[in-house]
Design brief:
The complex is a heterodimer. By secondary structure, chain A is an all-beta fold. Chain A contains no helices and eleven strands. In chain A, strands 2, 4, 5, 9, 10 and 11 form a six-stranded mixed beta sheet that branches. In chain A, strands 1-3-8-7-6 form a five-stranded antiparallel beta sheet, with no helix packed on it. Chain A is globular, with a radius of gyration of 13 Å. Chain A starts with a strand and ends with a strand. By secondary structure, chain B is an all-beta fold. Chain B is about 0% helix and about 60% strand. Chain B is globular and about 40 Å long. In chain B, a hairpin with a 3-residue loop joins strand 4 and strand 5. In chain B, strands 2, 4, 5, 6, 9, 10 and 11 form a seven-stranded mixed beta sheet that branches. Chain B is built from no helices and eleven strands. The chains are: A mainly beta, B mainly beta. At the A-B interface, strand 5 and strand 10 of A face strand 5, strand 9 and strand 10 of B.
Chain lengths: ~110, ~110
Amino acid sequence: ILNVEQSPQSLHVQEGDSTNFTCSFPSSNFYALHWYRWETAKSPEALFVMTLNGDEKKKGRISATLNTKEGYSYLYIKGSQPEDSATYLCASPGNKIIFGKGTRLHILP
Amino acid sequence: DADVTQTPRNRITKTGKRIMLECSQTKGHDRMYWYRQDPGLGLRLIYYSFDVKDINKGEISDGYSVSRQAQAKFSLSLESAIPNQTALYFCATSGTGNTEAFFGQGTRLTVV
């Protein structure tokens, strides 16, 4: 898969609220999907590698789901904290790793 | 020490100059990538390499060239830098299959 779309482009969330955002991809020839967190002035770091339809993965307050038949993945953050402010990228690995443009998450105090 | 190291971290150069960005990795990965990041455009792939003898163009290779000197080293060159190549450049590596990418610290390049 090559075309990875993310929405929304930017999101403002009150501290303590939960939120989620979407990564969409063509459902044909699915191989895998990556989620990354990219904090300001740092480098992207992988959160999840997802491969199977129905996959659910969790790391602390962050979780992700995968639906390969309909071509989307959701990233959820429960009880947002200031340290969650970052850009969240999804990526399509295969012969090359192609990234979406990201969702920029701002946590408001 | 970082697993993926980029040098230099910051560089200002003049239009028309040749410049090389270097990347080295200690992860033992075969796959290496160069991306550039521009505001609002995310990470765009410039070149990628699966091994020393396998180098491929990415989405935006015009104006760039690369060299894979060894499994651990992948350099990006701008033969004649122009202002619209001002950007943040990232090197990354990955293992085989669907494994995740590991990024260097980034190189901020300004062409004046």
